[in-house]
Design goal:
Blueprint: H1 22-29, E1 43-44, H2 45-58, H3 60-65, E2 69-75, E3 78-85, H4 88-101, E4 109-113, H5 119-128, E5 132-135, H6 141-150, E6 153-159, E7 162-165, E8 172-173
Parallel strand pairs: 1-8, 4-5, 5-6
Antiparallel strand pairs: 2-3, 2-4, 6-7
Helix pairs in contact: 4-5, 5-6
């Protein structure tokens, strides 16, 4: 067997950053097809607390293993998609994909997640036009910056009766 290998003239490294590399963040944000989510959709703070409660209640695999992330998508207050996965990005991809297959109007949605919020996670929402992203966990600096640059309302540490709103606070009604 004769094998001929072609030598690449350019070598590149592909890595997963988990939101920690500023270069990846700025590269991504400059290339999104929907650079700004212009939406007048609002949600009551109490609804966000309820959405997180639903996410926690449905996260049965997490309760069994403690090793999964969950994501849910609510359209005008109604749960339209839920997923669990070992990866937080995968869980979000699953709910966005499921809702896209149902032709959901993303402009009236809230994406709720159990994981930290780096730029990549916020950009997933921005790309499809989701105006509000909420998480039980905290944001990463790149996630806050991405939210501010793309018009996404980022709400993190949604726990108990509290939450922190990091961008476009006018979408969260007290």
């Amino acid at each position: 067997v004769e094998m001929r290998l072609r030598v690449a003239s350019r070598v590149s490294v592909v890595r997963s950053s988990c939101g920690s590399l500023a270069d990846d963040f700025y590269f991504s944000i400059d290339r999104i097809s929907k650079p700004f989510v212009a939406s007048d959709y609002t949600v009551k703070a109490g609804q966000l607390l309820r959405f997180v409660s639903v996410l926690n209640r449905k996260s049965s695999l997490f309760r069994l293993t403690g090793g999964t992330h969950s994501a849910a998508l609510f359209h005008e207050g109604v749960l339209v998609a839920f997923a669990e996965d070992v990866g937080r990005h995968n869980a979000v991809d699953k709910v966005i994909g499921s809702a896209a297959l149902r032709r959901t109007d993303f402009s009236k949605c809230v994406l709720v997640s159990s994981g930290r919020q780096p730029a990549g996670m916020v950009l997933k929402a921005a790309r499809v036009g989701i105006p509000i992203v909420a998480s039980i966990a905290g944001p990463i600096y790149s996630g806050v910056e991405a939210a501010r640059k793309t018009g996404v309302t980022l709400v993190c540490f949604v726990r108990g009766r509290r939450m922190n709103v990091y961008s476009f606070h006018e979408r969260v009604v007290l």
